[in-house]
Design goal:
Blueprint lengths: L5 E3 L14 H5 L3 E3 L22 H11 L11 E4 L6 H18 L4 E7 L6 H15 L12 H15 L2 E7 L16 H14 L6 E8 L2 H6 L3 H6 L3 E4 L5 H9 L14 H11 L4 H17 L7 H22 L2 H16 L1 H6 L7 E3 H14 L7 H13 L4 E6 L6 E6 L5 H11 L1 H8 L1 H14 L1
Parallel strand pairs: 3-6, 3-7, 4-5, 5-6
Antiparallel strand pairs: 1-2, 8-10, 9-10
Helix pairs in contact: 2-3, 4-5, 9-10, 10-11, 11-12, 13-15, 13-16, 13-17, 17-18
This protein binds adenosine-5'-triphosphate (ATP).
């Protein structure tokens, strides 16, 4: 193994100061990296069994549930529940991968696909992705997403599994986040319909082959309470619980990935320090690994040869921001509109917010944010949902830690009001993120003076 960071030598440059070099010289000059195998700490890598630390109990449970598939029996569905980054997807993916390999030797045809509820806006999109991934894995012709009904997407999925597999394993990650957009109070969320249709297909013998559903969630109550009665009677998973990691466990997990870096590039206390920072938060292994990778990226950008605790400290802000941006980019459009309304109140109302006795320059009062929501939906001719929905979506964004939701008094018994605080990501960065995501947000800012005066007038009257 090479020691220390990798250095690729310049072809023809002997200058030291990169500011004096031509573009060609700079591009072909020395390249430093602290990473030997960065894949090991990339977000979606499913690592080998020998890198999984602990989790024996959960592994055994999942193995015992999947095992019948290798003997021609139908495995039960599973609900893996626990906080973010506690290994639910890793355990599901690793056991499914191993089972498929063993199945190949025993002539049991299995495949698994994974879809994340956070990244899907509707039932149709989710079922399309599952179908599409099975088509890809099995080398079938890819069918189109558009111009077909959701029910024909299901039919195609059932047909593929029936014709080509004995068992199709479907991992539905963070499924409680797939609520869909067109929900009124009496309508079940999208995830309820998905679970109903997938679990019912096997019950009524729609296929000779079958599915096993592995659902992961951070919020089992939202998921199970969101099922309508017909789904609740068909989807009866075996539950497996995952708890937060402590600093010692996180340290072990990181040590099992330290060969992502060249030897001696991680200064001695970097792994314990990173584990301690992650344990102080949520005990989330993803956060710990992301922190280590981002610390390495910072060292690389500065052309430094070692990763230190200072890099980890700096990485913390960046990783937290990335998480918030990721949530904002992936929530439904109505939630994005709700957030946009609150963020513009903060961005364009700075002067009044900082002058006020009971508001702050990092916040937006909920009544004004809601008025801006109404203004924006009129301006862009977008469906406007009830105030109740607006407040619920904002509370939900609070639980994802995109904003903080508070109740605040005006003083002198003049009543209380809801307040949104931009704690992890400044409001103007949120506005920029949304503007990049959808032109309707950009168009609203084309006339900045107009939006500024709408915000100011409403804050004045508040
Ligand atoms: N016990 C463990 N050993 C080694 N790596 C782990 C362990 N637990 C989690 N990880 C790593 O932490 C990261 C997050 O894990 P994973 O995606 O499985 O979490 P999750 O519980 O499914 O989270 P979420 O609920 O947010 O989807 C992954 O990179 C995974 O490889």
């Amino acid at each position: 193994m090479r020691s220390n960071s990798c250095i690729i030598m310049a072809e023809d440059s002997d200058h030291q100061d990169s500011s004096q070099l031509s573009i060609t010289e700079q591009l072909s000059s020395e390249y430093h990296t602290v990473f030997k195998d960065k894949d090991l700490i990339e977000p979606d890598t499913i690592v080998d069994e020998d890198r999984i630390v602990g989790r024996d109990e959960q592994l055994n449970k999942v193995i015992n549930i999947v095992k019948p598939a290798l003997h021609g029996d139908q495995p039960e569905d599973m609900l893996l529940r626990g906080p973010s980054g506690t290994g639910k997807t890793l355990i599901a993916g690793t056991v499914a991968t191993k089972a498929i390999k063993i199945g190949q030797k025993r002539d049991v045809k299995m495949e698994f696909v994974e879809v994340n509820g956070k990244h899907k806006k509707s039932e149709h999109e989710a079922i399309h992705q599952i179908t599409h991934e099975f088509e890809q894995l099995l080398g079938l012709e890819l069918t189109s997403k558009t111009g077909v009904s959701t029910s024909s997407r299901y039919d195609r999925l059932f047909e593929i599994v029936d014709e080509h597999l004995d068992i199709g394993i479907v991992i539905l990650d963070e499924l409680d986040l797939l609520v869909g957009d067109s929900r009124n109070k009496n309508e079940a969320p999208a995830f309820s319909d998905i679970l109903y249709k997938l679990s019912r297909a096997k019950r009524i013998g729609k296929m000779d082959s079958s599915f096993t559903l592995i659902v992961t969630t951070n919020s089992p109550n939202s998921l199970m309470n969101g099922l309508n009665s017909r789904t609740a009677s068909t989807f009866n998973p075996t539950e497996v619980a995952f708890a937060d990691y402590n600093a010692t466990e996180l340290r072990e997990i990181l040590k099992h990935r330290q060969d992502a870096f060249y030897e001696d590039t991680l200064v001695d206390d970097v792994i314990p320090y990173t584990a301690a920072v992650a344990a102080q938060g949520e005990g989330d292994a993803r956060f710990a690994i992301d922190l280590l990778r981002e610390a390495g990226n910072i060292a690389n950008r500065r052309e430094e040869r070692t990763v230190t605790t200072n890099h980890v400290e700096e990485a913390k802000n960046q990783v937290e921001k990335n998480y918030v941006v990721d949530v904002i980019e992936n929530v439904s459009f109505q939630k994005q509109v709700s957030l946009f309304a609150a963020a513009v109140v903060n961005k364009y109302g700075q002067e009044q917010l900082s002058r006020s006795e009971f508001l702050s320059d990092r916040s937006a009062p909920a009544p004004v944010a809601h008025t801006l929501y109404k203004w924006f939906t009129d301006y862009q001719n977008i469906e406007r949902r009830s105030k109740h929905s607006y407040l619920r979506w904002m509370r939900e964004l609070g639980t994802y830690e995109v904003i903080e939701v508070n109740r605040k008094g005006r003083g002198n018994e003049r009543g209380v009001f809801g307040e949104y605080i931009f704690h992890n990501l400044p409001a103007d960065v949120m506005v920029e993120t949304l503007v990049d995501k959808d032109d309707r947000f950009r168009e609203a800012l084309d006339d900045e003076e107009l939006i500024r005066s709408v915000v100011r007038n409403n804050l004045k009257d508040f």
